[in-house]
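--- STAGE predict ---
source: upstream dedup step, 1 unique chain passed
mode: sequence only
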Amino acid sequence: MAPERIVILGNAGSGKSTLARKLGQNLGLPVVHLDLLFWGPDWTKPDPVAFRKNVATAVKGPKWVCEGNYHRRTFDLRLPRADLVIWMDTPRLVCVKRVLIRSWNNAPRPDLPDGCQEKLDREFLTFLRYVWNFDSASRPAIEAERCSKGAEVPVVHLKGKRELRAFMDTWI
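--- STAGE serialize ---
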């Protein structure tokens, strides 16, 4: 039986949003993009209480795919209800390449609100450092929080296209 409440975690550019859309389409699940709930126009940050309320509402239903980290802000809302956690273990060079390409293209993305286009600017360099250092700087804290809020939830690690295809063939 396919999972009905899926949390997808990983680095920027790892494929979280793309996988969420595919799973949502193939399993008939609503897709929750946390970046879409978090960011306001032109990258404005939300009121933390409002963000949590929006996430709680989005994962209140019986079925969903939720992609994004926001571990300290939302794991307590998502993980206790999740059937499965998927870690996108995409190599950082691939993540950096994808982030560079999508920023260079500067096209609107369905997982971001209007007015939040990635640009090649000074802030982007900080973001690239985050992507490059994700596995050593951010992932340990995300994983520790995942273990404290949802240790009993099964975890699948997907490292590349071959594992992703095998996962989709098995679960979908």
